[in-house]
Amino acid sequence: MLIDPNSERPLPDRRDRKTYYFQVTPFRRVFIPILKAIYGAFALLKVEGAEQLPAQGGVILAANHLSNYDVFPLQFMISRPLFFMGKEELYRNPALDWMLRQLGSFPVYRGERDDWAMRHAQSVLEHGQVLGMFPEGSRNRGKGLRPAKSGVARLALACNAPVVPVALHGPQYMFRRFPRRTAVQVRIGEIIRPQPGETHLNLTDRVMFALAELLPPEARGAYRYRPPGF
After folding, report:
1. CB-based contacts of 112: which residues, under 8 Å, 6+ apart?
2. Which helix (H) or strand (E) holds 205?
3. How far is CA 218 from the centre of its chain?
4. Neighbour-count burial of 12, counting CB atoms closer than 10 A to its CB (0-12 exposed, 13-18 middle, 19+ buried)
5. Tally: H helices and E strands in the chain
6. What is d(CA 206, CA 213) in angstroms, rounded to the nearest whole number?
7. Secondary structure E strands in the chain
8. What's the half-sphere exposure (Cβ side, CA atoms, 13 Å) at 151?
9. Which of 62-85 are b and which e, b meaning 16 or more Cβ less than 10 Å from the residue's Cβ?
10. Considering only CA atoms, which of 172, 171, 35 is closest in space to residue 99?
11. pTM score of the predicted model
């Protein structure tokens, strides 16, 4: 957060000048089916555990991060609209900025504390929508889970929102086997609910160990070994 050195008050964020959406826009209603059809030409999507997803209310989908294409299977596996953070660099192009905002995306500055993005993410949950997040923060490219950041847990605790762990496999291979379609697997775990008095560190570990159990041992990385009795 930027602070005015003269008044010591937070400076206005330029992102507040733009419109962000908490519902399905007409553009999204038309574009997502088209995008799904195009994606289907390149990927064969298989989903396990879809019954774990709540039909309504604010919920966080916490997924491992393999590639730039991870958000697509997250959206296509559910009937509800998905809202998600995108790296700020993507929004510097005016056309892409408009399209991403129409699709429910909003920018986040990586590598620093971004209070604006966290407030907006909280608003998504308060509007009863689905928020997609990658707790690792950056792509692991299939080399195993990285130690997670605490953003997912902080939001879940602040909004008392359930977290659904989602394990992805395959997006990191997209377009490498063309014209053969890439097999993309999605495994959805059981709902994790914040407990009264729980710390964000404990909830982060609960989410990540649950996510790790949905992955093969070689993909669990920093969460390969679960402490006894955890």
Report:
1. none
2. helix 200-213
3. 22
4. exposed
5. 6, 7
6. 11
7. 43-48, 59-63, 82-87, 105-108, 130-133, 163-169, 182-188
8. 30
9. bbbbbbebbbbbbbbbbeebbbbb
10. 35
11. 0.91
Please, are residues 10 and 1 in contact by the beta-carbon 8 Å criterion? Answer: yes
What are 20's two structure tokens?
A: 């962000």
pLDDT in tens, 59-105: 999 999 999 899 999 999 999 999 999 999 999 999 999 999 999 99
Phi and psi, residue 219, nearest 5°: -105, 5
Residue 97 token pair: 């900025």
How many alpha carbons lie under 13 Å from residue 68 in its C-beta half-sphere? 3
Token pair, residue 112, equals: 């620093």
Task: Dump the DSSP string for 77-139.
Answer: T-SS-EEEEEEGGGGGSHHHHHHHHHTTEEEE-TTS--HHHHHHHHHHHHTT-EEEE-TTSS-
How is residue 15 written in tokens? 């992102």
pLDDT tens-digit series, residues 183-215: 999 999 999 999 999 999 999 999 999 999 999
Residue with tokens 């129409």: 102
